[in-house]
Amino acid sequence: MIRWIITPLLCLLSLACYGNGNDAGGTSRRPALEMKIASTGGNHITLDIQWLNATHARVLCLPTKEAQEITVETLLERGARYTDHRVTIEGLEPMIPYTVFAAVFDEQGRHSALQSLQFTTTYADPVPYAWESARDGILSYTDMVLCYGGSHHRNPYLWEKERFAPLVSYTDEAGKEHWLFDSFLFLESQDTNVPGRVDYTYMIGVLRDTGYSADREQWNYLIDYWFGADSGVNALEEAVAAAAQRLGTPPTKRKVVMVLPDPIYFLQYGDTSSTTVYWGEVNGRKLDFSNYEDRITAYKWYIDQVRAHFDAADYQYIELAGFYILSEELAADPGDFNYKYKEADKIIPRVAEYLHALNESLNWVPYNRAAGYNRWKSLGIDYAFMQPNYYWEADKRPLPQFFSDIKAADLAMEFEFEHTVLESQAGSDVYRKRFREYMQGAIANGIYGSKPLAYYHGTNALVLLSQSQSAVDRELYHEFCQFVLNNPLRAENAQK
Q: Most buried residue, 175, 180, 213, 344, by most Cβ within 10 Å?
């Protein structure tokens, strides 16, 4: 008990030592100050200000470059007066170095010594658009198709209205048309095959020894690709609008999930001697990806660029539902391979927090048993779809083990197929069999109807399947589309 009493007293005596301001009369009861930073954001700082022998504080916060020759007299002239110990200063600019000055005063005008602290504001705090604020929370969806685009090696290169048409709606064997996928994931892992130019990667591990990590200019190129006048997001809006002329307004707006390029640690991931300061600037400050905070800043910058495009377009039939973590593994534990260069436990929850404040979701599609696959919820991810990889490696990736894993980790499922399912391709019967096993397994294991589903079809396999005149291909096409059409989650999500 005695120790409990003495300890606070010692703390107060220690605090008093901070004060060395004017001391009229030579008394020891001069004002004393202790100031600490409680938190900072993109446009504010919160301070904890403790004092002795004082009634109020005066505080002045200035950009560090303007903080010259600041005195107690400056505080009296320009500083704000506070009587509370918790002080929040708002209206700051994001990513700017600031210096905050403070002194405390008593009723006689005596004051403590001037104290100062330096800090840098973070990226701008999330401010939702009206259409984001109108949501009750993040959006749900049933069947999400992956659309790869943005790399010059892909054929076709553009996602035009006509290419989206067989993904937007489906006409059954009786001639009746139906809405098909309710959500579309736009993504890309690289940009290669550009004549006279180096190759760039958006994804950690791709082109690790032959290409360069995408910088801000290349990230902007990807945004421009997906928001081209007659391709990408705008083309999807047109395709849904055209279908609506025949089917009426869809039950919900079609959801769009946009890729998040990886902020890759090095300019060339496979070369640890290459620079980490290559990406570019945000708010006039060069980012250094050896600092995970700067990687978070790059993510937020990209998110805001995409959101601004959606807001400006004011689409009638589609809406932004969230973003997609491109990396297929998340090193989130110091023991994970290459953890230093990924630090998912420090980065991904912060990105998720930013998105959730905007009512946007965070999505992920890890490969089979990728690092972090069973920790996705703790990272703040909303929807995670694990890849079976059985389609290519049936001997190494048995489906019973896959379904056991996703049920244990509460994961959703990604389906996989490529152009190799087409009858014209050698050995296609094997791949059609494996794809059918996906559908059968999802039903048998209770995934179908309980979890959203994602569908990888290479660059263009589903479009080719829809156009094929082969009886074998037509059978698989109708079987698959009926699988999507009859997903029990469709009716549930149509009400949200």
A: 213
List residues bridging with 99 in a β-sheet. Answer: 62, 118
Distance CA 405, CA 416 (A): 17
Q: What are the pLDDT digits (tens) for 338-348? A: 999 999 999 99
pTM: 0.89
DSSP collapsed to 3 states, 409-478: CCCEEEEECCHHHCCCCCCHHHHHHHHHHHHHHHHHCCCECCECEEEECCCCHHHHHHHCCCHHHHHHHH
Rounded Cα distance, 357 and 137, in Å: 9
Q: Would you tell me how many other CB atoms lie within 10 Å of the CB of residue 119?
A: 17
What's the CA gap between 260 and 323, in Å, rounded?
6
Residue 23 confidence (pLDDT) above 80: no
Which class is 130-494 in CATH?
Answer: alpha beta
What is the pLDDT at residue 450?
97
Task: List the chain domain ranges.
Answer: 2-120, 130-494
What mean pLDDT, rounded, does the chain reach?
A: 93
**Tokens 């660059």 sit at which residue?**
459
Query: In the numeric block, which tokens belong to residue 116?
Result: 């100062």
Rounded Cα gap, residues 72 and 104, in angstroms = 10
List alpha helices for 114-258, DSSP H.
130-133, 161-168, 216-226, 233-247
Class assignment of domain 2-120? mainly beta
In the DSSP assignment, the letter for residue 111 is: B
In percent, how much of the chain has pLDDT > 90? 91
